[in-house]
Specification:
Helix content: under 10%
Protein name: TonB-dependent receptor
Domain TonB-dependent receptor-like beta-barrel: 434-898
Main location: membrane
Subcellular location: Cell outer membrane
Strand content: 35-45%
CATH architecture: Beta Barrel
Region (Disordered): 257-277
CATH class: Mainly Beta
Number of helices: 10
Radius of gyration: 30 Å
Number of domains: 1
Distance between the termini: 35 Å
């Protein structure tokens, strides 16, 4: 490379004003720097259909911003799943679902949320066609495609359209489209085998992939290939990670001791705590009232701390760190097989058939089951009787001889509420015919996609059996090892169900040039689609029999028909205008028309100006308008005057309130309008940059009732908001005339809010060839959100960007202002080395949907915790390498999170212990090593 060219390249990298913004995107054309192609005779350029347009084109730069991630780039990144690859895109933000969020409604899955508009506003396609949604909805409301069920080994490229696209693809494409494009043909064979492990323990992984294909479409008239994948990742336990991620005792850094065993929580240890008392309501064992001092049921085990003289709950307790039972990464096992057969019917026509089966199993670990629960039955004041039905003294009650009841706090040592096994199966068959008929290029396709999810939940107490065991003394609290398997199975029966989704579709589109214009041919595309969608997610907890488990069921089905058209007009050599529109009709919510117009203007060869304006919509999911209901839990401290009316007793300590949302058959689709405006600049062939501004406004946002407003009204004795009801808990045994605490807040879904988000994407790409045969590719890109505002029905405006809101959304991960990465890859001879730096900006621990002030406070002092009320930014660096031993064998390896950066401290994220897994999972995993070998036939 000449010195002046290198200087220009480095100056472009260093002086570009966007060089401080980091992000993960890919160049808009396949990466060819590793093996530069030799000079070839001039030939006609091949056209290609780019996501966001139905008209084949030579120029890959469209009016809409599209990021292309090639198979080569995926391999160099060291990322092994589609979920990891897509969620590393800088435009993925608030509402994204990480694999680590195993306590959520949609446990066992992963979803992408472009622009922070939640997972149900980003459309995920495979080869331009839809796929069935995951069988469980995020937060019991939002439907989405599980990224874990897309095969990685067969990927040719991933195109991420960061623009509204309902004018071509219909509903759900408000924030953009992720189109995973699989290999259309493959010749040869390749296999990889690798292992990996974390430096700090846990997470051992083993992975195998293979692909084998043969046949030349041009010579043989057919091609067929088969791809297989298998990967198993061991769990990573919290106890194997350092402070503060292995405990809830945060007193050393200004917090409180949140470990178990403290009845004021209330919670119990596996050793138990009992307090002498009586029943407020004769015969009701859940109405215990304390009369004396608490004491351990059995001696505290080794390593526990004895706490005495709690002014609200005097006595002695056995503290226990339940975090030791939890995992920062669940055990997962994935297996996939995908095959495709393509046949050339004649010189202009091909037919294909592809089929895949993907199985993803996630094993969730949990802490010991607590005997105390606030819902659906309140057992926080459960008492052991002094005598059994036969008149004998109760051996579990140390106060039986005095005729007193024993209020009990206890954690069952061999039962684990919330532990689960989720095995998701996805069968997808896609076939079609494409070719040329006269002046028309056409493509017709059929998709049949069925998923079924086996859900098994363990450790949840059956309320009726619990009361029977306590009454009859059936369960041995003194020596749990003496309880029979039959006793345990009856107390915590396995809760199982099979949830399913279906998507069957038929689509057809065709395109042709209509006439010559000054800049080229006027292109026309026409298309239509019909599909059937269904979901059947039955009730896991019928009748509320299981303690501490919310309700959730979703059942629905519908048909959808859509037609669309697109015109692409190169009015001048320098000006292209694209117009498209689509009409959809849903059998359950009616019709909608979505238009879009875009332009691309090149005033100079080195500069392009582009922009779009579009309208889109999102049809309600079955959870929102079908036969459905879902209930989740939030913990919210009550007002001071309410607590004072109850003497600040254990009844008003932080308790869970169930938020119950019900489907509304009259709900309407969400509507959106969006526009983008951007520049693409390429001063030299080795260097290109793009800047794209976006502005999205969504109206008629579907939301549940305002739980915060409803609770505020309840505590103040005011009328509740329209459509909201509150079910009160049982009265406080010590203050029976005081207002009971709220137990359930129930409301139907409504179209009542609007939101607006604005921001900018920046991409900077350089590819440089040096005279000694070395090639360097550098990709710097990122997304900055300027604003993310929610406008409530009463006119209140909530700003979330840079905060941990919307806190009620998914895992409460927040809305980072900036996300991004910088990747550099050097190829020299047989070796390739790639380093990628990822960055996520910090968050204020505030959330407008939770009221003013810091969410995270020390409950003992009332001070912010931490004092800054801020989660710092997170930066980590991955290093990967590959060496070709010969033409058939290569070795590769990776060190992920090379500098072993820990995740930022975040005590209020409810998806994990003291960190934010949506943006900091690499930090909790720590430095991770991977080595593997690839063999080519």
């Amino acid at each position: 490379m000449k010195p002046n060219k290198l200087a220009c390249a480095l100056a472009g990298l260093l002086l570009t004003p966007t060089a401080t913004i980091l992000a993960q995107t890919a160049p808009a054309s396949p990466d060819t720097t590793q093996n530069p192609a030799p000079a070839q005779p001039a030939k006609q350029l091949q056209t290609i259909t780019v996501t966001g347009s139905a008209i084949p084109r030579v120029d890959l730069e469209t009016p809409s911003p599209v990021t292309v991630i090639t198979a080569v780039q995926i391999e160099r990144s060291g990322l092994k799943t589609v979920s990891d690859v897509i969620r590393a895109v800088s435009a993925d933000n608030s509402g994204s679902i990480p694999n680590a969020f195993t306590a959520g409604f949609a446990a066992g899955s992963a979803g992408v949320a472009l622009r922070g508009l939640t997972v149900n506003s980003t459309l995920v396609l495979i080869d331009g066609q839809r796929s069935a949604n995951y069988a469980l909805a995020d937060d019991g409301q939002r439907s989405f495609v599980d990224l874990n069920t897309i095969p990685v080994n067969a990927i040719e490229r991933i195109e991420v359209l960061k623009d509204g696209a309902s004018s071509l693809y219909g509903a759900d494409a408000i924030a953009g489209v992720v189109n995973v494009i699989l290999k259309h043909s493959y010749k040869g064979g390749e296999a990889t085998a690798e292992v990996g492990t974390s430096q700090h323990g846990g997470g051992f992984t083993r992975r195998f992939t293979g692909i084998l294909g043969g046949g030349d479409l041009d010579k043989d008239g057919h091609n067929a290939y088969l791809s297989v994948e298998y990967q198993k990742d061991n769990a990573i336990m919290n106890r194997d990670r350092s402070f503060p991620f292995n405990t809830l005792d945060l007193r050393s850094i200004g917090g409180v001791n949140g470990n178990g065993g403290q009845p004021s929580a209330p919670s119990g240890s596996i050793y138990g705590t009992v307090t002498p008392g009586h029943l407020n309501t004769p015969g009701d064992l859940t109405s215990g009232v304390a009369d004396g001092v608490a004491q351990p049921l059995v001696p505290c085990g080794q390593g526990t701390t004895l706490v005495t003289n709690d002014p609200q709950n005097p006595g002695s307790y056995c503290l226990q760190n339940f975090v030791n039972y939890l995992a920062v990464q669940p055990e997962t096992e994935r297996a996939n097989v995908y095959g495709r057969f393509t046949v050339k019917l004649n010189a202009t026509t091909q037919a294909y058939l592809g089929a895949s089966y993907y199985q993803n199993e996630v094993s969730v670990l949990a802490a010991p089951t607590q005997i105390n629960s606030g819902t659906p039955h309140n057992t926080n004041a459960l008492a052991l009787p002094p005598t059994l039905p036969d008149g004998s003294l109760n051996p579990n009650n140390p106060f039986a001889a005095q005729g007193q009841y024993a209020l009990i706090n206890y954690a069952f040592p061999n039962l684990f509420a919330g532990s689960a096994d989720l095995k998701n199966h996805n069968v997808r068959v896609a076939g079609g015919v494409n070719g040329v008929w006269g002046e028309w290029d056409y493509d017709a396709g059929v998709v049949v996609n069925h998923t079924w999810l086996n859900v098994s939940n363990f450790g949840f107490l059956n309320y009726n059996q619990l009361i029977e065991d306590v009454t009859n003394g059936t369960y041995n609290f003194i020596d749990p090892s003496k309880n029979s398997a039959a006793t345990l199975q009856a107390l915590v029966p396995t809760l199982s169900k099979i949830s399913t989704t279906d998507l069957d579709s038929v689509d057809f589109h065709a395109s042709r040039p209509l006439m010559d214009l000054s800049g080229g041919s006027l292109g026309l595309a026409l298309g239509g689609e019909w599909r059937y969608e269904a979901q059947h997610d039955g009730e896991l907890n019928p009748g509320g029999a299981a303690q501490g488990l919310g309700t959730a069921h979703t059942i629905g089905r519908r048909t959808v028909g859509g037609v669309y058209a697109e015109l692409d007009a190169p009015l001048l050599q320098s000006l292209e205008v694209d117009v498209s529109g689509r009409y959809d009709h849903y059998s359950d919510v009616g019709g909608n028309f979505s238009p879009k117009v875009g332009f691309k203007w090149k005033p100079f060869e080195t500069l392009a100006v582009r922009g779009t304006y579009s309208k889109g919509f999102r049809a309600p999911g079955f959870a929102e308008n079908g036969s459905s209901a879902s209930g989740g839990f939030v913990v919210r401290p009550p007002p001071a005057d309410f607590a004072a009316a109850h003497g600040n007793d254990g009844y008003v300590k932080p308790f869970a309130v169930e938020l119950l949302s019900a489907a509304n058959p009259a709900i309407k689709p969400e509507k959106a309008r969006s526009f983008t405006f951007g520049l693409v600049y390429q001063p030299i062939k080795e260097l290109s940059a793009s800047v794209d501004y976006y502005d999205i406004k969504k109206t008629g946002v579907i939301t549940g009732g305002d739980a915060r407003a409803a609770l505020d009204a309840y505590y103040a004795g005011q009328p509740l908001p329209a459509g909201v009801t509150i079910t009160p808990d049982l009265p406080d045994p010590q203050f029976p005339n005081a207002l009971p605490r709220p137990l359930v807040v129930a409301a139907g879904y409504l179209n009542e809010n609007s939101l607006r988000t604005k921001g900018v994407d920046v991409d900077l790409i350089g590819r440089f060839d040096f005279s000694n045969g070395m090639h360097w590719t550098s990709e710097l890109s990122g997304t900055e959100i300027f604003t993310w505002k929610l406008l409530l029905q009463d006119g209140t405006q909530q700003q979330f960007v840079g905060t941990q809101g919307p806190y009620a959304l998914s895992s409460g991960a927040g809305t980072p202002r900036i996300r991004g990465s910088w990747s550099n890859s050097i190829n020299y001879g047989k070796a390739t080395l790639t380093g990628t730096l990822y960055y996520t900006s910090g968050l204020e621990m505030t959330a407008a949907d939770q009221g003013p002030g810091c969410i995270s406070i020390n409950s003992d002092t009332g001070n912010n915790f931490p004092a800054s009320c801020r989660m710092p930014s997170f930066t980590d660096f991955d290093l990967t390498g590959n060496y070709d031993i010969n033409d058939h064998v290569s070795v590769y390896g990776a060190v992920l999170n090379l500098f072993d950066r820990k995740p930022p401290f975040d005590p209020i994220n409810y998806a994990a212990i003291n960190y934010n897994p949506t943006y900091g999972q690499a930090g909790i995993v720590g430095r991770f090593f991977n080595v593997g070998v690839k063999v080519k036939l």
